[in-house]
Amino acid sequence: MRIVSGIQPTGQIHLGNYLGAIKQWIDLQNENECVFFIADLHALTTPYETKLLQKSITEKVIAYLAAGLNPDKAIIFKQSDVKEHTELAWLLNTICPIGELERMTQYKDKSKKYKDNINAGLLTYPVLMSADIMLYKAMAVPTGKDQEQHVELTRTIARKFNQRFGETFPEPKSMMPEYGAKLMSLTDPKKKMSKSDEPKSCIFLFDEPEVITKKIMSAETDSGKDVLYNITKKPGISNLLVIYSLLTKKSIKEIEIEFKDKGYGEFKKSLANVVVNYLEPFRIKKKEFETRDSYVKEILEKGQARARVIAEATMKEVREKMGII
Ligand code: AQP
Questions:
Q1: Among 8, 24, 78, which residue has the most ligand 1 atoms within 8 Å of its CB, making it the best to mutate?
Q2: pTM (2 decimals)?
Q3: In which domain, by residue range, is 230 found?
Q4: Taking the mean position of all CA atoms in its chain, how far away is CA 52?
């Protein structure tokens, strides 16, 4: 099965991005044809430093590799290196109803967050994302919960295209983990963990052990002292329980029993240990890859070439079907 997913080179990759998306990618890469890209064109829709963009892209490739992606299996590339993404996005813009875009939750959230920069790209972002997926005729898109609505829109656009121009695209489905599809902020557990929020609200993949411990020990928890999973009454502790469970493979029930009558402090201390140990190999590999600049470049070049073969074939078909050849 062909699978597509990506991450924007904004901020640093956090545990939410890892548990919601990257961890699934690692599991999928052996049995599937995987296409994973750095979504640099998407990153232009929110404020960014031009001088830092390339550095941030390299960091994301290193994060992919340190987390366990294998460039000999998965196609890893930079979105802007394959021009067909923007070409297909334009063509799909002519099919996508504007009302669909205006109701997207991420558009509403980001318009509120970036009041001084509500650019058209923020609105049409999901069309570019549909192009990212459809260009490779992907069947599945492993992402966190926040992207589910965009994948649903991709299905709508694919259906409309097929109806108007003839059967061309599959209707892709979202793939989400049962737990961890929406990790919440450590400082405000009612909000999702987000790269662009304050650093203490996220555990970054490469945070140093003392930073991780400090963030977890000061994470917002709920009144009471029982370590119990209850999303509505105890969103803070529930979020930490999900992290604990996913990183140790223990069930939430088991963890609740382990920390019965032990209180939040002891639970958080143990969680900090779990996270520090889990992420240690990532930190080590990152340092190793940072000394291999040309390797990252090589991966992106190889990925671009492999991605373009698929992208060019799809675009040839699309142009013919739309009558622009
Ligand atoms: N909190 C989260 N829990 C689980 N999955 C998450 N993802 C994002 N946040 C969480 C998933 O990570 C992948 C990459 O996300 P992105 O780079 O496209 O941007 P995003 O979804 O907008 O993530 P952020 O961290 O909130 O970034 P900024 O602050 O730059 O907007 C996606 O699969 C996403 O679902």
A1: 8
A2: 0.95
A3: 206-287
A4: 20
